[in-house]
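Dear support,

Our group has been running a series of protein-ligand predictions, and this particular one with nicotinamide-adenine-dinucleotide is the one our PI (initials K.S.) wants archived with full inputs and outputs. We had some confusion internally about which version of the output was final, so please treat the block below as the authoritative record. The input we submitted was:
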Amino acid sequence: MTWLITGGAGYIGAHVARAMADAGERVVALDDLSAGNPARLPADVPLVNGSSLDGDLLKRVFAEHGVTGVVHLAARKQVAESVARPTYYYRENVGGLATLLDAVADAGIERFVFSSSAAVYGDPGVDLITEDTPCAPVNPYGETKLTGEWLVRAVGAAHGIDTVCLRYFNVAGAAAPELADTGVFNIVPMVFDRLTRDEAPRIFGDDYPTPDGTCIRDYIHVADLAEAHLAAARRLSDGGASGDLTVNIGRGEGVSVRELVTVIGEVTGDRRPAVVEGRRPGDAPRAVASAERAVVELGWTARRGVREMVGSAWQGWRLHHAG
Ligand SMILES: NC(=O)c1ccc[n+]([C@@H]2O[C@H](COP(=O)([O-])OP(=O)(O)OC[C@H]3O[C@@H](n4cnc5c(N)ncnc54)[C@H](O)[C@@H]3O)[C@@H](O)[C@H]2O)c1
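Confirmed final output from the archive:
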């Protein structure tokens, strides 16, 4: 097997590339470097600088590297930007996926892993979200992920491609400081950013129907997430899967924003109290995965906790923001 990892120089993609290469898989990364950093990739993983929207390039890469499976992570991922620029998000995330799937089908590639998101569920109002919980995304980003899943399954059925859609919950942490997320779009880097500016962390809303009034999320360490991709790839290459599989990737444990901010205070030593501001539109009170199917279908379960996520993310933050 040779796996093409699109978005392989990105935050999650580089972790996936490393985990798969370390486990002895042959991998090649494709990234247009719009948000990626080639230095994240290990020396033994070749990087093709180009877009997953370029069908001719994909054809060449598949042939030159003998690609037999694809892990597709390349995407635009900022919710607020997707609200402001929906056509761009549909073109990049759905149009780009269609181009990629055409190339995959033409090349006779039979294994495909797709980066989906808990954003497909929207605000389902259940204690634990199973893969059968109805999907109702509340922003264009989530819509592109749900439409992407539909497209992946339809093309898989039409061309005999075995597919796995991984619905990640809230990703945090780093396997090594140099692999850390350098964007400030998720809560952990957002709090680090505030503290680095000598400002109090912000909590958006403390009047939700939750025990401490703040939103509850399911945080997953990126190193665990990378291992889930390896498990999905192995399941496909071992012939264990036929058809399509959709799996939540979370820990099955809820952590409130206030609890998370407390852990960040303990890890950084900066325990200044958070300021509470108004709710942000579109934030669900609670989004926690049922993590059962991943155990049954992939033999995978998360091993790392929130303190490890925050500690490793803080080391990465300090590396990237030194001085
Ligand atoms: N970070 C999260 O919390 C999270 C949660 C759920 C799902 N996801 C999904 O995981 C995937 C990876 O996210 P990330 O956090 O690593 O983001 P990221 O921005 O760090 O990585 C995406 C990578 O893809 C590259 N890229 C973007 N468009 C491309 C294209 N058309 N062709 C080639 N390369 C392209 C970027 O340069 C970047 O390196 C995305 O599909 C995202 O939607 C992320």
